[in-house]
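Page 47, continued from p. 46.
Same chain as before, 108 aa.
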Amino acid sequence: MITTQVTDSSRGVAAAHVPVDLDFFISGHGWRAVGQGNTDGAGFIRDFGEPPVAGIYRLAFDVAQYAPDSMFPTITITFEVRDPGAGCHLPLVLTAYGYSTYRTSSIA
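Result:
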């Protein structure tokens, strides 16, 4: 299962209501949408409803909906799921002029 969380470290709060799209890459055909959602009050999306398969995915965060003055209005993270049975949690940490991401195996 793929999950995410957005934290606004500039404000010291969870980033609620950030629209996020999840896409899957199909070789020779390009990207296909497999899920979408908005972060909840704690900044989480706990389920995109995607099928548990190995492959290349991308998360596209519409940061401008959350922070219209953001230097990065859209942030895209491309990653590979090798073991579909293992959790894949990708937090996004926003700052005023940057961002950071990493992978953990589950929601902490």
